[in-house]
Prior knowledge:
Layout: H1 2-17, H2 37-54, H3 62-78, E1 83-88, E2 95-102, H4 108-111, E3 114-120, H5 129-146, E4 155-160, H6 174-184, E5 189-196, E6 224-229, H7 234-245, E7 251-256, H8 269-274, E8 279-283, H9 305-323
Helix pairs in contact: 2-5, 2-9, 5-9, 7-9
GO molecular function: aminopeptidase activity; metalloexopeptidase activity
Keywords: Aminopeptidase, Hydrolase, Protease
Amino acid sequence: MRKYMFALLIFFLAVFFSTFGWRLWVLTPAKKSPVNNRLANQLKEHVYNLSFEIGERSMFNYENLDKAAGYIESKFSAYGYDVELQHYRPLDKEARNIIAVKKGSLDTADTGGVIIVAAHYDSCFNPGADDNASGVAVLLELAKFLADKKVKNDIRFIAFVNEEPPFFKTERMGSRVYVKGMKRSKENVKAALILESVGYFSDKYFSQKYPPGLGMFYPNRADFIGVIGNFSSRALARKVTSGIAAFTDFGVECFIGFAAIPGVDFSDNWAFWKEGYPAVMVTDTAFYRNSNYHKSSDTYEKLNYERMAQIVEGISAVALYFGNL
Length: 325
């Protein structure tokens, strides 16, 4: 009996310690590029406005949700885009997905598909600085940077509504509504890049956790950005990972796995995978590193805007690559 108890203890200890990263060393060499302070400050301004000036954003705080939507629409318009709105009524009020389209030089039928870059703008009864004002800030700056660039394929920048509970993984989730419409219209998607919590980093040891078992293969410190894909999106995930890595001074980690692993499909990538579209989630891993997740303490001053600026530069290169395939 004592032997079995000891074996059980060893098993539980192994599971526990495998939730922490085992890789204590840094695989990514120091890079070259100086920090873009202007871009970092602009990202901070977006996050501040959305999470502090506006605050909690949901169908249950409709005035703030509407303000956030107005803020995003105004920025897209200021960058030169004609803004499209997809309206639907998940409750007794109207919700809207916000779309800005970067038109390609070729007809969509000739290119084989569109590129989607997206982030949700609602929050879970909290300020939602990392989750997900950070993703929206990166989305806006990507749209701004790419506004005057030439591409062959259409790139759609989309701010989705209602990603958070109680709409999470339901038919009333904003991205689910949008992607089902794409499927009905028989649209093709070359790539969907979902920005989900991209601003929280730590250089401290034991700051990064994982689902049990995965920690053996990944870093111990929360100093990297993750690219998450399912098996159907593995080629896309690898290309996005290498593209971001070329423009960052910190690590980029790729994970390809089953949606059943907690967190793998915990954002709008779920909606694309449901319809068989290639999609990846770009994320700081949210609750696996950020103790402020879905709490009132998820505030703007805790984020790293210099690293977010590098994410913008990396993803812009990825978007241009797919936009010109």
